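Reproducibility note. Readers wishing to regenerate the assembly model reported in the main text can use the exact inputs given here. Chain order matters: entities are listed in the order in which they were concatenated for prediction.
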Amino acid sequence: MRLVGRQRRTVGAFTALFESEYPPLLRIAYGLTGSQAEAEELVQEAFIRCYQRWDRVESYDNPGAWLRRVLLNLATSRGRRLATEVRALTRLGSRHSRDHGGADEAGAGDEVFWAAVRRLPRRQAQAVVLYYGDDLPTEGVARVMRCAEGTVRALLHQARTGLAKVLDPEEQS
Amino acid sequence: MIDLDQRAREAGAGLRAWDPGTPFPTASAVATRAVRRTRRRRAAAGTVLLGAIAGIGLMWGGLRHDGDSVRTGSVTTAPSDPHPPTSVPAPSPTTSVVPEATTPSTPVGPSEPGPSVRTCRGEVGGVAYEVTLPDVWYVNEAQNRLPPCWLFAPYPIEARLGPTEGDPDISSNAVISFVQPYPPDAPPPGSFDQRMADIASRADVLDSQRTTIDGRPAARFERIATAGDDQPGGERYTRWYIDLGGVELWVSTMTPGDSYDEAVAALDLIVTSMRFTG
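Running the prediction on these inputs yields the following structure tokens for the assembly.
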């Protein structure tokens, strides 16, 4: 009976976390990848890892921050995998290559902006997606990215400078 | 000149208002995938273990020309076992300074019993070592100049190396990290005892203990961090110092935003399980 009760509590707590965090995580992943299908796969993978470690994750002060960190790392791994695939395709002389910065669906607002974000250095892109897309304060972004708040502010500043060069016609000229 | 901050805020609001247009999966569907994957992984590990047992059995049988029956009991310590027995290797009497670290909880999934620890091997200053870590934790693999078995975390580790070949800096999201603070060609100043006594006298020390790890002099300090490049200061951290004879090893954890107690338990498990093999 105790086991049944414990399992019930586990399922209930995991479900509550899943339902509250799945939508924002999906948006973060979409902002980082530009692909809804890949975003869904990354977020589900993050939750699978969360469930496999639930005994520990549930005791964390902020399981949402843990999930975001896992998601960022999964997205980074995906980016490296894609880069490897592109290199392999290039070596094979294939004309099939993909635009890392592009989006495969429309509808998430300023796609031009997010495509430019995805071309930023990885840490800058992560900071922008968490700060502007997930609406986290710099303290929350620092917690997810495991760095100091000042580092986040510097990353955001560098990102805005980089984005201005791409998005602002006056800067381009 | 556009206002990038304003445009970014509007783009962020657009992203938050984004409707993917497809129904979300259910938590139970994701949990089911997690359980199936865990079972597959353990089944695969079991197959490897059975293969190792069979291989060792055949080898043992081949060596036993006198025809004695094979005693399979010895294979439980097969070196190829990727998941060692759930108990932590018995600590030496001198490593009992942190007894809770030698009796880890069972960090497994909610409904999956199984092994709780595993091992990894590395090298520091020419000294090879093996450590035990919680089974569900991640440990880094060798990456360019980053040696294996140096970084540990309860989530996938992302390590960033210094920008140049000669730059040994490593930053990562690991919560436990090994550091060799003094270059091999520049031995630490003074004796290990002097250095540890100096640290113990500092005002930021909350707790200090001296012990040995697998026969090597060691010390464990819990301290309060001072503000630095990457830390705001004021955080508790725990660091082990191990004297490897001309080489000093630091093993530390600082976990802003994470479970400090869990990290310290894992740290103590890792350090007290260290076995030096060369």
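We highlight two features of this model. Residues 95 and 213 of chain B are 6 Å apart (CA to CA). The longest strand of chain B covers residues 205-213.
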